[in-house]
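Predict the structure of BTB domain-containing protein.
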Amino acid sequence: MSLAADDYFAIQNSNSGFRESESHEIDLTEQEPEMVGQMIRFFYVHDYDDGRKATREEGPLMNNTTLYVFDDKYGIPTLKEIVVSKFMDYLSSRNHPSLLKSQSYPESIAFVYDNTVETDRLLKDRMMQAAVDNIRDLMKRKEDGTSSYFREMLRKIRPCWVKSKECLPQDILLLLWDAQ
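Done. Here is the predicted structure for BTB domain-containing protein.
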């Protein structure tokens, strides 16, 4: 499937020499059909289904983060903002401690960090703030490896104090964990 790049697509660096910037088409044949469908639905109704009706608890977390990464790749800032809003709304509408017990919470954070540029902070900062808000529960998750998983993931994305004078939430988390 190919879609014509119109106002919805902010093709990065139109003078970049990428095939998409020259042809004004974006080939989506190798993308997840579900994510392409969500994007197309957004173009028509300015909304998408994040999977809240799914029976699995992790559905909306991974659906939103996967769509966020997809949006990041194709430069659809309005959709990215809605994804962040839905992700945070889902977190706030659930009981944080039970949601944080799902394996998909740390996996969704790792997925966003592994698949977006370092400077893309829109969702990352909100994810980390939720982790800071629930630090005690995350630190208790030793039985399934989440505590050490989270610690290693945070080490991978830090330290901010080397880069700037500002301290980000993930650095606070590491300081608390290291003090244990």
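The chain has eleven helices and two strands.
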